[in-house]
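User: Structure please.
Assistant: Input sequence and predicted structure:
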Amino acid sequence: MKLRYWLPILMLTVAVAAFFIYGKSVRSNPASADPRDVASAVDKADGQEKINDGVGAVIESPSTPESAVGKDDLHEVLSVIDGDTIVVDMNGIKETVRLIGVDTPETVHPSKPVQCFGAEASARTKGWLEGRSVVLIDDPSQGERDKYGRLLAYVRRDDGLFVNQALISEGFAFEYTYNLPYEYQAEFKAAETAAREGKEGLWADEACAESFETSGGTAAFVPANPDDKDCPDFATQAEAQTYFEAGGGSPTYNFDRLDSDHDGVACESLP
């Protein structure tokens, strides 16, 4: 009688003890952890989140083109307008982005013919960015948008390619300062000097030796002056305008690239 009374209680006690012992062993066994949690812990090592692009490349952060970003910072490139202007998808909204610090020869300007090496620059940017995603990095010194409403940004491709600088380094673009110095101005100027000395791209001896006919007329090429001036080199707009006109600047000739909107008025933001 007594045995039948205590036997169920004894069996229940053993079962409860076994449950707790097993549960503790599972929680303490790393092999039982969710692999997604392990991967997340590894990716967040040293306080940095990393994104693998599928081939082992690590994307860097949006604070500068050298640091790590999250997946939400990647934007699909929808189209390439020309060498220095692209369209991206930002949360379902199409945004036109103008690359900071670079200027490629014109191909789509409404009042200018296609310029020498413009087609090559556009093709290079398309080859790099069509079908890819990019990180957009702003520069507070340049503002959020230009006068046409385009976002201003440094563009880093999903595998880490710093597109702005690469265009200059390979001779597809000039360094371009719009009124105020920007964060990577020194690096971009050095990249242009190296490209010019190495005769890369549009700096090659025969690259733009001859003009060619297009549907809009004769293509024009305006090489950068090795001793050119930027808008910050002048104290006033009048001083910049005098220099611009002395160099033959006009709405159709952007001397030293001081007239960003091609209206014949140099450095309009200066006092």
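Confidence is low (pLDDT under 50) at residues 21-70, 210-226.
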